[in-house]
TrEMBL record:
Protein name: 18S rRNA aminocarboxypropyltransferase
NCBIfam families with a match to the protein in the record: PRK02287.1 (NF002621)
Location of the RNase L inhibitor RLI-like possible metal-binding domain: 1-31
Regions of compositional bias (Basic and acidic residues) in chain numbering: 216-225
Recorded GO CC terms: cytoplasm; nucleus
Binding site for S-adenosyl-L-methionine: 13, 61, 84, 99
Residue span, 16S/18S rRNA aminocarboxypropyltransferase Tsr3 C-terminal domain: 35-161
Record's subcellular location: Cytoplasm; Nucleus
Region (Disordered): 171-225
Keywords per UniProt: Cytoplasm, Nucleus, Ribosome biogenesis, rRNA processing, S-adenosyl-L-methionine, Transferase
Protein source organism: Gloeophyllum trabeum (strain ATCC 11539 / FP-39264 / Madison 617)
Amino acid sequence: MWDFDHCDPRRCSGKKLARMGLIRDLRVGQRFRGVVLSPKGTQPISPADRDIVLASGLAVVECSWARLDDVPFGKIASPHERLLPYLLATNPTNYGKPWRLNCVEALAAAFYITGFPEYAERLLGVFGWGDAFWNVNKDLLQRYQACTSAAEVAAAQEQIMQDLETKYEEVRRDKDSTDEYGADWLTANPNHQVEGDGDDEEGSGEEAESAAVDRITSDLDAVKI
């Protein structure tokens, strides 16, 4: 993990993993031959990356979503930079938001997709809300797991997003036809929330976590993939 100290160390998922000895820090400029999850990647991670992860490991950049421009991505380059496909965050800070995964969610997603579910579950198990990530993203992750290449993952992601958009519009039309107050159903669906600038840090509180999971699960059921 490349850690740029953007987050509160008491709430940062990457730092918590490091304190528990489940992840190690990398220096800027340090050579890394494994897969790096980076917004600078040009292709999504896929099951085809399994051998690279097995041989050389997996790395992530721990930083704030609001400060991506401050990260010297050119100095943490790898021959195997990868993007994560469409998934929903379930951490308390960004729950329900597409793409806004924190450090542990990103690592877990990559491990699930490349065929190492035991590693994903070990990391997520450190967090009280960790089970929600698989419960909410199970259908998505299984579709990506069934692919054999980055191109297939990209195609699956595109189809998923098209299906979500189509089915969401159908749900909205049905709701609008019976909603005398003209409620804005678009904002109720996490797949259409505008991404904020909040850091990818952990929050706390069992009630907030439970409410987050219930809300996401309910919305996904309404727009079932």
